[in-house]
Amino acid sequence: MKYALVTGGSRGIGRAVSVKLASQGFAILINYVSNEEKARETAALVEEAGSSAELLKFDVADAEATEAALTAWQQAHPDDYIEVVVNNAGIRRDSLLVWMGPEDWSRVLQITLGGFYNVTRPLLQPMLLKKRGRIINIASLSGLKGLPGQTNYSAAKGGLIAATKSLAQEVGRKGVTVNAVAPGFVKTDMVEGLDEVALKKTIPLQRFGEPEEVAALVGFLASPEAGYITGECISINGGLYS
Ligand code: NAP
Question: pLDDT, tens digit, for every residue of 201-217?
Fold first, then answer.
């Protein structure tokens, strides 16, 4: 059995990625932080796609909780390892920097950058030993272009892209690839409250993306066909920025 861990797999892009990777034959570990009902719905969709699912509840920003959950999983599966990790868990806490409180600054960085560190580091050793692994980080258009009201989020996602490039150079010779995906506006709970009608006009393809479109790209990066791609950040944004 090949295993893939999707952080923030209960909803949105993480759910679509879980279903896509399930259709590619991976057993899915669905991480979430609070929304058990939605995580169970994802698990049912994974099973419908012909694979199996396990729920792993932990806050990726909490180093101890993350380590405890991943260690417990490894102990329960001594002969297995997690071959694919999709660092997808994320939040946004938008405001102009002049008004941004310290909690909104640090929480966004802790989940995106701290989460990347807390989740990826313990999973690396088995990947390196097996000489096979895929690390896929969900970044954002904001991390490439910057967006007003998102200095915290842009800093976190820009940092994640830079970490992707560094780690790719560390682990390439051990058969592990590390890539990032940078979506533009995608229809999930995260974009609730944005003015879709106005924003659509700024996008060459004149629409928001679907989570399944991002999942298709992640599925490709996890597939054998993408074996010679590493250290990349691939945009998927309807032509908004390149
Ligand atoms: P979403 O619908 O709001 O879902 C967020 C997911 O992250 C949920 O599964 C949530 O779990 C989980 N999560 C949040 N904080 C967590 C934590 N501390 N520990 C573990 N899990 C946590 O968001 P989305 O739009 O699918 O976004 C997924 C990723 O894509 C994020 O990294 C986001 O920054 C990125 N992205 C999104 C867009 C967009 O337009 N939607 C664009 C660019 C990039 P619960 O259900 O338990 O709360």
Answer: 999 999 999 999 999 99
